[in-house]
């Protein structure tokens, strides 16, 4: 059993002694534009930003935060949305801006707020009927055991190492995804594929396309919602709409449950959100996490499964990520306001230039390794998050004593 640090070193203190809420509001002075973070920009539980918005795009009241401040989702469903941006900007009033006091380490307070014990307590004392919120005044009065400042910095340095690795892998994923998108557009939008100089361009209903290519509609080349049999009994991977990403091909938050109701998918399939605003926000993923190509998963009825018929799986995913493909689907949406859905007939109206077989094979040989690397980096991040999340409560509570560890503390954390 790990030994706990001496009781007289870790002191019981109010949270108010360690950190405070920043309540500075932004007073607009014309059409000024600043980085903006809303709850929609923060990924649940990952401690990372999905994206950053522009303050000019929202007219609501905003809070001011500075680099290093802790942004904590104030609404109960979003208490796991916590980030610490390395830039200054504005954020939603549904976010609590927290700053460490001089006697505490900002990084340690950040990890303390992400700890499940704190989240549970914030949930317990949240107030409000329609959308319960964290009550910061009550949270400030709560008492917790905190280590001395040197130990705080050691704990923060250990946990930050994991987050730095995750951030590096995330950056690699972003670069690889940008590369495959660029290659796709170069080959199949601008028609500058290897050897294109010697290929004659011919007239088509889409304009000039390479000779030997054919203009087709989506169902001619892609199976829409392929029929897959899946037994009801047994635990299987399940994907909710929250599992689909807005800006990466990787799946998030895989559940495992019994049943077979909903959409079915296999490795190589693309999941395309059919409902507003998920489609407009870009929720689309590529399936490659199943144990084998024969395995099947299931999930929400609110996404459309796209499977290659005459193309390649990677081509289908990249096509579905294009603005023209998404815009065509958005135009077909119908239903009640806020719950509009894509009509599958829209795919009959979308035409594109189908490459010849040789070009597809050459493209697949180049692109497939990129997709595999993206998945491998994603798996590494999943393992890093799992290890970090196992360590975090043990370190924050003092169950693991790190006070005697000889760890180099980055200058930025002192």
Give the key terms.
414 residues; alpha+beta; Adenine-n6-DNA-methyltransferase TaqI, Chain A, domain 2; 4-stranded antiparallel β-sheet; 4-stranded mixed β-sheet; 8 helices; 31% helix; elongated
Structural overview:
The protein is of the alpha+beta class and 414 residues long. Among the domains are: 11-146, Adenine-n6-DNA-methyltransferase TaqI, Chain A, domain 2 (Alpha-Beta Complex), CATH 3.90.220; 214-354, Alpha-Beta Complex (Adenine-n6-DNA-methyltransferase TaqI, Chain A, domain 2). Helices cover 31% and strands 20% of the residues. Helix 4 (149-188) packs antiparallel against helix 8. The longest helix has 41 residues, at 357-397. 32% of the residues are buried. The model has no long low-confidence stretch (mean pLDDT 90).
Beta content comes to 15-25%
Can you write the helix and strand succession as a string?
EEEEEEEEEHHHEHEEEHEEEEEEEEHHEH
> What is the highest CATH level, the class of the domain at 214-354?
Alpha Beta
**How are the strands ordered across the major sheet?**
2-9-6-7
């Amino acid at each position: 059993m790990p030994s706990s640090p001496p009781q007289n070193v870790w002191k019981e203190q109010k949270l108010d002694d360690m950190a405070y809420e920043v309540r500075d509001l932004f007073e607009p002075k014309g059409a000024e534009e600043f980085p903006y973070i809303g709850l929609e920009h923060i990924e649940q539980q990952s401690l990372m930003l999905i994206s950053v918005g522009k303050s000019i795009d929202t007219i609501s009241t905003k809070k001011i935060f500075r680099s290093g401040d802790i942004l904590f989702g104030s609404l109960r469903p979003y208490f796991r949305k916590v980030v610490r941006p390395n830039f200054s900007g504005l954020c939603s009033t549904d976010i609590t801006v927290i700053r460490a006091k001089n006697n505490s380490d900002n990084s340690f307070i950040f990890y303390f707020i992400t700890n499940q014990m704190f989240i549970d307590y914030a949930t317990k004392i949240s107030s409000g009927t329609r959308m319960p919120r964290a009550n910061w005044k009550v949270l400030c009065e709560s008492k917790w055991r905190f280590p001395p400042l040197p130990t705080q910095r050691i704990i923060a340095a250990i946990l930050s190492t994991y987050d730095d690795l995750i951030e590096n892998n995330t950056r690699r994923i972003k670069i690889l995804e940008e590369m495959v998108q660029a290659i796709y557009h170069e080959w199949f939008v601008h028609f500058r594929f290897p050897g294109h100089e010697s290929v004659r361009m011919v007239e088509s209903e889409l304009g000039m396309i390479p000779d030997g290519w054919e203009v087709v509609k989506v169902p001619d080349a892609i199976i829409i919602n392929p029929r897959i049999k899946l037994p009801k009994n047994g635990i299987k991977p399940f994907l909710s709409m929250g599992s689909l990403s807005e800006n990466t091909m990787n799946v998030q938050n895989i559940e495992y449950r019994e049943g077979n109701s909903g959409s079915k998918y296999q490795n190589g399939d693309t999941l395309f959100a059919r409902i507003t605003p998920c489609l407009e926000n870009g929720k689309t993923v590529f399936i490659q996490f199943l144990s084998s190509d024969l395995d099947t998963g299931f999930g929400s009825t609110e996404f459309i499964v796209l499977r290659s018929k005459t193309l390649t799986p990677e081509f289908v995913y990249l096509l579905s990520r294009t603005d023209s493909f998404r815009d065509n689907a958005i135009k077909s949406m119908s239903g009640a306001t806020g719950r509009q859905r894509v009509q599958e007939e829209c795919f009959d109206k979308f035409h594109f230039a189908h490459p010849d077989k040789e070009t597809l094979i050459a493209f697949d040989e180049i692109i497939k390794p990129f997709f595999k690397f993206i998945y491998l980096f994603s798996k590494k991040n999943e393992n890093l998050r799992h290890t970090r999340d196992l360590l975090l409560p043990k370190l924050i509570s003092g169950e693991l004593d790190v006070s005697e560890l000889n760890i180099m503390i980055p200058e930025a954390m002192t």
